[in-house]
Amino acid sequence: MKYLTIDTTTKVTAVALAEDGKLIGEGFLHTTKTHSERIIPMLEQLITAAAWTLQELDMIGVVCGPGSFTGIRIGIATAQGLAQVLNIPLISVVSLDALAWAGKERMEDVVPILDARKNEWYTARYHWMPGMEKPECLTMPQAMSTGQWLEYLWGLDRSICFVGDAAVKAKKRIEEVLGERAVILPEYISLPRGAYAVRAVWQKWQETGRGEQVEPYYIRFSEAEVNWAKKEKARRSSGNE
């Protein structure tokens, strides 16, 4: 089964081609250009380099969040459009689940952290048991303040392997709290990669064997939604129904 994966949940645009869970090729761009400017040219170049055609694809996988609200929408819209035109199944995976593959076979708990702004991270906690085909999720995906999350991890008294776009940026702070129990993987491993999405999508396909109606997974409301809710509440309170 040949398939494409798309991940635009962070500033990285990650596109990959795979067959039966095996990575065929991947594109990775971390530049100032927007996802909408990068994603189609990257896909075209990757398809050409692999000597594939879009018509050969049997499935499309997309990372549905959490992460950048705009990035999530662009990735899902692109994946949905392609799946509809090609009449093939679409499947989604969570960004934190995909990033957990960066720590495959490590002995420590694997903790992806993505910048959620407002001094918060999108995060979760996983553990790879020997011989397992996917990580066990020990703490479900959530948005949490950086200080509260680090305090929680410190209380576990376990070694933690950090991945994600916030891992390298927060390296000093993490090490101040967890000391030698913190393992922070280098950026070229920590950032979202097509290879991680390929594995996460294939694992889910093996479990479900079918496509799905994909929706963005935001975890929390966007700034625009929060502001709208505040204005709506103020309007109702003033009696101007």
From TrEMBL:
Annotated GO biological process: tRNA threonylcarbamoyladenosine modification
Superkingdom in the source lineage: Bacteria
InterPro entries in UniProt: ATPase_NBD, Gcp-like_dom, T6A_TsaB
Pfam family, one: TsaD
PANTHER family reported for this sequence: TRNA N6-ADENOSINE THREONYLCARBAMOYLTRANSFERASE, TRNA THREONYLCARBAMOYLADENOSINE BIOSYNTHESIS PROTEIN TSAB
A GO-annotated cellular component: cytosol
Name of this chain's protein: Universal bacterial protein YeaZ
Sequence ranges assigned to domain Gcp-like in this UniProt record: 32-145
CDD domains given in the database record: ASKHA_NBD_TsaB (cd24032)
